[in-house]
Structure formats: C-alpha cells, structure tokens
Specification:
Strand order of the largest sheet: 5-4-1-6-11-8-12-10-9
CATH topology: Spore Coat Polysaccharide Biosynthesis Protein SpsA, Chain A
CATH superfamily: Spore Coat Polysaccharide Biosynthesis Protein SpsA, Chain A
Shape: globular
Order of helices and strands: EEEHEHHHEHHEEHEEEEHHEEHH
Helix content: 25-40%
C-alpha cells in the first residue's frame, strides 16, 4: 500500500443520481438541493468536509445538476443586494457557504454505480488519499465522521470506512462488514479490522450487524482495483468490490459511528432529519416542539 503517505486534502461527493425516490420534486431540481430546514441536503456533507480539514471538494455530477454548482459559487450580486438592504448577517451567511474550499466538477456520463462514480474522479484526485461522502447521508456526532476516518488513515496508512449498527431486518439494504476488533487502539472497541464485506446480504446471512454508512477515506490504490472490477448486477461497478480488495490486503479499517446517522435518501429518513434539525433551531425550535406536542390528527 501507500508508503509515501500524503495528507487527506480532497473529498469526492458523487451527486449524479436521478433522485427518483423523490419524484416529482426532483424532476427539475437535484435531490441534493432539497432543503433540510434552511440548508440544502448537500451542504451538510460539505460542512462536514470543512470541519474535517478537507481543502478540495470534487463533485461527480450528471445532467441537471447546475444548481449545485451555483449554490457553492460566489454570488457577489446577491451579497451586494443584501448589504444594500441592511441584511449584513445574511450576506455573510451567503459568503461563507463555500467555506474557503476549492470546488471541482466532473461528469459521470452513465449511471454505472458508486464505484464507477468514484473512478470518474481519478484524474482530479491524482495520487493522493481522499475521502468519499454520500451527500444524502447526514452524519451527526461530536467529532465529524470524516475527520475520524482521516485520523485513522493518518495513524495506520490504510483505508477506513464508517459503519453503524443496523437492525437485522434492514441489513439487506446495506454493505455489511465482517471484521475483528483492533487489539490496541485509541478508538477502543469502535475500531475494527475489516476482513470482508458483503453487499446487501440475504436475510439471515449477514456476517455482522454493522452496515457501511456512506463515509470513506481511501488510498489512491483503490482506483486500480475499481478499474479492473467487472460490472455486477445492473451493469454497475460497486465500490464494495474495491473495498473487498483492500480488506484482502489487510488494508481496511471500520470505525463504528458514535453519533446519529440520518439516511435522507428516502422520504421517511428525509422527514426525520428535517424534524430533528428543526427542533434544534434556536430561532423556532421550541415553538416547533410545542406545535408537534399539540398536533392532533
């Protein structure tokens, strides 16, 4: 694996999906731009990048995704308008959306799976370790999930993924790891050496109750594995296959997330995330809580 270890500076955010589970809302608007309270879904992932020390975000986009580029671009006209109306705080908020990050965009021309989306970013990533964040998953914890993975990579030189405890009936929708607890680690029982992964196991066959949760830090060697991976079901190249190759080399760790995971990629998960973040809002959270308590249907 990588011997001349480089710092994790880049993150890949695959956003080329069609968002069909949210139709008709996503007919003309990217799913990633659906608002969770007052911020688009994708902004939560970008803010996690900022909090984790990432400097360069690479979006793997598709058609009809220009709104994402516009959201993270500079908006001097809007800032000037807000300032002229005495709305300095809003102008500052708009200015800080990009967080000083460098953004790049590349197209995934066909929906050929998550592994293919990651592979599409190879030229922009180069020969560096990098993070991958799925934009429809909001990770909530005291230490950002991506930062924890970066720290594991810095200490071990190996890839790392975030996993969460999943109910038995739901494991069939996840990639599930088979692993063993690290012998000595400052992450204690929350760090496991991954021996294998199974993508969407049949009910009763999962090797554990730990499902992959949409956060990865990977060495550049993953691209070589993905390039030789043959398409599986539906003609897609699965990232799981590349992760399995790393695991066989003894070069993959799993960190059990010690916070909450919001799978906002489906309607119910999206609604749950919206309600929980609304309840935390300092401006109206208390009133919203009272409303929910008094709600009669």
């Amino acid at each position: 694996m990588t011997t001349n270890r480089k710092r994790v500076r880049k993150a890949v955010l695959p956003v080329a999906g069609l968002g069909t589970r949210f139709l008709p809302a996503t007919k003309a608007m990217p799913k990633e731009m659906l608002p969770v309270v007052d911020k688009p879904l994708i902004q939560y992932a970008v803010e996690e990048c900022i909090a984790s020390g990432i400097e360069h975000v690479i979006f793997v986009t598709g058609r009809r995704k220009n709104a994402i580029e516009d959201h993270f671009d500079f908006a001097p006209e809007l800032e000037s308008f807000l300032e002229s109306k005495g709305k300095s705080q809003q102008a500052q908020m708009v200015r800080e959306i990009s967080g000083g990050l460098h953004f790049s965009y590349t197209r995934q021309n066909e929906a050929l799976g998550l592994g293919h989306a990651v592979l599409t970013a190879r030229e922009l990533v180069g020969d560096e370790p990098f993070a991958v964040l799925l934009g429809d998953v909001i990770m909530d914890s005291a230490v950002p999930a991506t930062r924890s993975l970066i720290e594991i990579y810095d200490e071990t030189g190996n890839g790392a993924i975030t996993v969460q405890e999943v109910e038995a009936a739901e494991l069939q929708f996840y990639g599930v790891i088979q692993g063993e607890q690290a012998k000595k680690s400052r992450w204690a029982e929350r760090l496991l050496k991954v021996n294998n992964l199974v993508e969407k196991p049949k009910t009763g066959t999962a090797p554990s109750n730990l499902g992959v949760s949409g956060r990865y830090v990977l060495p550049p060697e993953i691209f070589d594995y993905l390039e030789t991976t043959k398409p599986g079901a539906g003609g897609e190249i699965q990232l799981t296959d590349g992760l399995c190759a790393l695991a066989k080399e003894g070069a993959l760790w799993a960190h059990v997330h010690d916070g909450k995971v919001h799978d906002a990629g489906d309607k119910l998960g999206f609604l749950k995330a919206t309600v929980e973040y609304a309840l935390r809002n300092p401006s109206f959270g208390a009133k919203f809580r009272t409303y929910l308590k008094d709600l009669k249907l």
